[in-house]
Structures are given as C-alpha cells and as structure tokens.
Amino acid sequence: MHNSDLNPAVMSGLGWYYLLAAMLNAAAAAYVAYFEMVSEGASRAGLAPRTRRLPDWLVVSFCTLNGLALLAVLGKSMIGPQAMILAYSLAALANVIVAISAGADAAHHAEAHDAGHGVGAEFAGPSLDDHIPAVGLGRPINRTLWTLVWAIAAVVFQAMGIVYIFNKEFSLPLFIRDAIDYVSGPTTFFLGATAGFAAMIAYRRVFANGIVAWALVNAFLLFFGLSMTDFDFRDIVTKPDNVPIVGMIIFVGFFTWLGLRRAVINDSRMAQGLPNLEELEPEKTLTWPDLVYTELIAMVIQTIVLVIWAVALQAPLEQPASSTSAPNPSKAPWYFLGLQEMLVYFDPWMAGVVLPTMIIVGMMAMPYIDNNKQGNGYYTIEQRKFAYITFQYGWLVLWVVLILLGTFLRGPNWNFFGPYEYWDVHKIIPLNNVNLSDIVWIQMLGTKRPDSIILRELPGIFLLLGYFIVVPPLLGKLFFKKYIEQAGLMRYIVLATLILFMASLPIKMVLRWTINLKYLVYIPEIFFNI
Amino acid sequence: MAIVEKITDSQVWKSVFRHPMPKDRRNRVVVMLTNFFLHLHPVSVRKQGIALSYTWCMGGTTFFLFMVEVVTGVLLMFYYRPTLEHAYNDILALRDVTTLGILRELHRWGAHAMVIAVWLHMYRVFLTGSYKPPREFNWVIGVLLLVFTLLLSFTGYLLPWDQLAIWAITVGSNMARATPLMGVEGPGASMLKVNGVSLITSGSDAKFALLGGRSVGEMTLNRFYVLHCVAIPLAAGLLIMIHFWRVRKDGGISGPM
C-alpha cells in the first residue's frame, strides 16, 4: 500500500535539497581545480609557488547571484508568488557557473602545466599546482578528471532540483522500492553492516582517500533525496525525535572517516620511519589566544546552530499521557533502541540489565585490560589491531547500526519493515522459534521432554557452561598466549568474559536465523531464559 | 577613549580583573593564572593537542551543551509544574503561548546533541588511545559521565507527560522488573522467600523503586523530576569537576608520549 508520494511542500523541499547538493559538488569541483592540495603531513618544502587562483569574477558573480537570491526571498511579499522561483533560478545559475568554470579552468591548467613540463623546458620539480597526497594514500589524483566529475555531479544534482522546483514529479520507481523492501530484513541488514565494516577495515587505504569519501557522500545524498520521494520513508525520517539520528549518522560517518584516514596516514608514516602526524608540531603555544579564541568561536557557532535548530524545528509533543492506549510500536528513547533491538534475541533480564551492565563495566575495564603500550596519544590501527577492531565492531555495528535498525526499520509489534514499506499494524510474521530442549528431545531423540527441569534443560546448561568455562582456556591457548604472559591471568579472565558476553549477541542472532532457536535454556519457573 | 581608560583604571575594574588586557606575552600568561574561568586551562598547550582534526572539539562541546542544559533547565523550572494536573498543559503552553517557550526546544535539542557529543568525545579518546596510562581513571569517570548523560536524558523524557513520554519510560522501566534477584520477573527472585513469603513482589522490586509505584504515575513524575533537576545534575557536576581536574593532573590534552 502506497500513499500519494509527492506534494508541493515536499517537492519544493527537494528542490532546495538538490540545490544544496549541487552547491557542495560545485565547491568540491572548485576546490580540486583551484586550491592547493597538499594533504596532511605531506611536505611543503621545496614546492614552487602555485599559479592557479580562484578567479575574482567567479567569487563576485557567485556571491552576487546568491545575494540577489536572498533579496528575492526576503522581498517575497513585494515581488509576488514568483519570488521563490526567481531566487532558486539565481542560486542555481551560481552553482552552474562555478561548476562549468572550474571544469574549464582545470582543463586549461592541465594544458598549461603539461606545456611547462614539455620538450625543451627543464622539469623544475613539483609545484603547488600538483596534488601532493598524504603518505600512504597512493598517487596524486588527476585534478582535471576529478574537477570534471564533481562538476558534472553538481550539474546533474542541479538539474534534478530544477525538475522539482518546476513541479515535475519524479519519484523513485516503485519496482526499485519494492526490490529494496524485498531484500531487506534484519538478517540482510545486520550481515550487510558487518560485511561493510569488514570491508572498511580491510580496504581502509582506499576508504581513507578523499575521492572515495566524497563519492560516498554523493551516494548518500542521492539515496536520501530519492528516498524522500517515498511517503513511508519520509514519514519515519521526519519524525521530530528522529531528526537527531540523521545528524548522528552524518557526524559518526564523518568522524569515523577522519579517524581512519589519520590512522592510515600515521601507519604508513611510521612504517617508513617518519614521525606521525601528532609529532610534527611538538612545540607549545600560549593558551591565550590560541585555545581560548578557538573555544569562543566554537561556542558562538554552536549557539547559532542550536538557536536555528530550535527555531526551525518544534520539539515533539504528542497527545496527553494515557495509560490505557499504548502506541504501537512503543519505543524507548532513540539512544536506547539498540538495547530494545536486543530484546528480539534475549529476555529483558539479559537485554535490559545484564548486557548493558556488561557494556558499562567493560568500557570501564578497557584501560586496565588493554596492556598495549603503543598507540597512546595518536591515531593508529596497525599498532593496536585487536583493540581497534573489537571496539569499532561493538560501537559501529552493535550500537549505532542497531539503533538505526530499531529507529527506522522496526514498526508495529516490533516487526521488521523495509525502508519504503507501509507500517501495517496487521502485518503477520510467523513465529516458529523453538527451544533447544524441543530440538534435542523431540526432534532429535524423538521422545517427549523429561519432566525434571534440570534434565530437560541439560543440553542448554551444558552448552552454556561450555561457552563460559571451556572457551576461555581454549582461546587463551590458541590466540592469547602472549597476552596472558604479559598481562596475567586475571586480566585475561576479565577480557575473555567481556568478549564472550559481547559475542553472545551475534551468536544468538545467527542461531535464530539458522535453526530458529528461541532459548538455549528455558526455565520460565524462575524466569531464567537465555 | 578617555572614558574607557577611566573605567579600566578604576578601583572596581581592577578589583575584578587583576591584570591589564592580555596583549603581551606576560599578561597572556597572567590572565590564565588569575582568572577563575580560565584557570581550568594550563598557560601553554602543545600545538598538535589543540588541532581540531585531532581533538574534534567534542569534549568542550559536551561541556558547553551541559551548561546550555543547566541554564535553559533552570529557567524552565520556573514555569513547569511536575504534577499530573499541570505537567502536560505547561508544556503545551510553552509550545503555543508562552514568551520564550523556545527554551524548551533549546533544552530538548541540546539534550539530543549532548548525547551525540559525548559519544563522539569518547570515540576520539578511544581512537587516539588516550585512555591508556596515566589517564585510565579519567576514562572510568568519563564512562560514568556517559551513564549520567543518558540517565539525564532518560529522566527528562518523562516530564512532558505525553504519550511519547510515558510509553518510552514504560518500555525502559519494564527492564527493571527483570533485574536478576531484585525484579519480580527477574531470574531467581522467586526463590527469595522467608517462611514461604516472597521478599520480592511487584510492590517491593527494582521497578517499584524506580517508578515509585507499580506503573508510571504521579510518583514517577515526581521521582524523575527530582532525579532530573537535582540529583543527577549534582552528581554529574561533581564528576565533571573531577574529570577536568584529572585532565590537568594526568598531563593535559593527550599526545604522543
């Protein structure tokens, strides 16, 4: 069931959204075309001065056109109903001019650059016109090519925006939406996130590259813009309390990339015997003014952002509290939705009490069980692979991704819904989960379950004890020999216990998906179900 | 200009600011030592330590948002009454008619932003290995501050007393019912008996202690109000002071050892 997808307000919103996307790409094109591209920690010594400059006429015309657009918006009441169209056209023109001139100038610079290095002329070494990549991030990029790519992206986004602003309807085709809904499910979503995480770690050098990161940003912009044409997607994403989560995705994504990039650069630098980025400026500077002014500027910017946010978006307030009519779904605050998602796989005493306690205790124990002296005070992955991967998996996949799942993809009765699926209260998902005791006694042995509780649950208890008593020594023998020698047995026991608790969630997930397991141990008489 | 000089030369001014404008090196040092608010900082810092691409500015952002929450929260307390009769209508009035009702928007969005800022601050501290010696204990305090931030946000969620509020708290507090040994539906609780009488009942378990009743009601509103406005902010404030003090004592902003 699909509600009517587009209305004038949404289309105008999308028009301005694509204007912003086009502006970002025009800026990227101009950056690659005109600016110095000496990446972090790449040496500037011995570089010839640069010859390319952002042309004044471009800056002036961009600012003038956008200024006129702002005036048109402000003078809406005087100009009449066409004011917004006029403002939009002016701003769009500014974007297109930047994109086109950046592309043209990049091509011109490439020719001039090649001529300068041509036959007869002596090669004078690189200049600031060349891209000097950071150590470890591969070869210089082709500036002409990438200027053109981002310029074309800007023009395409701008064209999409113009389509919407002139009221031409375009929605994500239904068959694509249905296909995405069809393949999405908790299993594909979680496994996809895990696979993406593994790829990010394995191909971190590629991911750290600015070009790749910007391509991902564009992919996200396009996905988000197209998805907003869907009524059901829009309905969930624009709930006021869900807006901070969209902000969280952007921030966590950006900082994950930034941290990973600096770690990749540092690892390559240290492999070559160079000092890492954090050691490049060892000297001290006075707190007043360098730090105090930074703090002041940060506070001013944050105040402005917060006030704009507060003016633009009203805080949610629903119907007065009523203890008789429960909303469906009833959701905890968004930052606890990862815990609520665990309720699918564990009983409340595990998902709501034991595992959160283990998360907190585990985080507190971290500095005491991580006895690796390297990687203190700088970004690195190579020097602390185990700590990095364990923490990042717990944080990005088991926390952030589960929050996204719980917020956007869990609907009435906590059933899973695809991103473009209508939240149907009557959706029925067959529950055919079985307990381990049923699997062992009824399905495998073909008898009836024993009456004695202990005997009935013996297989599960056996497995559980094995998990917590047999696995740690086994892991210790196989993988943690050196760690136990250095850190001692006590630290290892704590570490192993924490890891086993952390792993219990994905393990339970896999058991649910493969053999429909409900509980390993099921003793409802004392509420002891695992 | 004469008036400016007259003011800055006056006894009153000099009693407040104990040094001239920090325009030269000496006074830039003195200002950090004599000003109460600035003395949180050392006189000088490592250049890389304050680079934005290194610190992400998230610890300071968290503290800034905490102060925003304190100021807007105190102002909101002048208006809002935590009773079944008034709570919802007060919030409704803040939204629709009250002058400066935008304080509620600032408070709520600031709270969401603070949760995200705390996470990102801890993320940065992890990625740079800054929890390693000698900063182990400050990381522990930081984890406690994370817990307090989430609890502050959680207790504040109930105060508007709308459907979103009570059902989110109901979902959250149902977990307490399942606390091992201490919740009525927790594993092992039914085994705690004296002469056949259960010690843990729905009137004496962890959920009851949290809600002040068997379900979310007026006592819950009162309890969460006090926790939100007094108890947790005081505890968090104390830990923030220790956190900042320890940053200085443990060697300032982290960097390569």
Number of helices of chain B: 11
Largest interface pair = A-B, 92 and 100 residues
Strand content of chain B: under 5%
User: If you average the pLDDT of chain B, what whole number results?
Assistant: 93
Q: Percentage of helical residues of chain A?
A: 55-70%
Q: What shape does the CA trace of chain A take? A: globular
What does this structure look like?
The complex is a heterodimer of chains A (530) and B (257). With 530 residues, chain A is an all-alpha fold. Chain A has 20 helices and 3 strands. Chain A has 3 domains: 168 residues, no CATH class; 209 residues, no CATH class; 101 residues, no CATH class. Chain A has a two-stranded antiparallel ribbon with strand order 2-3. The radius of gyration of chain A is 28 Å and the shape is globular. The mean pLDDT of chain A is 91. Chain B is an all-alpha fold and 257 residues long. The N and C termini of chain B lie far apart (49 Å). The model of chain B has no long low-confidence stretch (mean pLDDT 93). Chain B is globular. The interface between A and B is large, with 92 and 100 residues. Strand 1 of chain A pairs antiparallel with strand 1 of chain B.
Helix and strand topology:
The complex is a heterodimer of chains A (about 525) and B (about 260).
Chain A: H1 8-34, H2 56-74, H3 76-79, H4 83-116, H5 143-165, H6 174-183, H7 186-202, H8 204-208, H9 210-227, H10 231-237, H11 243-271, E1 284-286, H12 287-312, H13 337-342, H14 348-369, H15 385-408, H16 436-444, H17 453-456, H18 458-478, H19 481-487, H20 489-515, E2 522-523, E3 528-529
Antiparallel strand pairs in A: 2-3
Helix pairs in contact in A: 1-4, 1-5, 2-4, 4-5, 7-15, 14-20, 18-20, 19-20
Chain B: H1 2-9, H2 11-16, H3 25-34, E1 44-46, H4 52-55, H5 58-77, H6 87-96, H7 102-127, H8 136-158, H9 163-173, E2 193-194, E3 197-198, H10 206-211, H11 218-249
Antiparallel strand pairs in B: 2-3
Helix pairs in contact in B: 5-7, 7-8, 8-9, 8-11
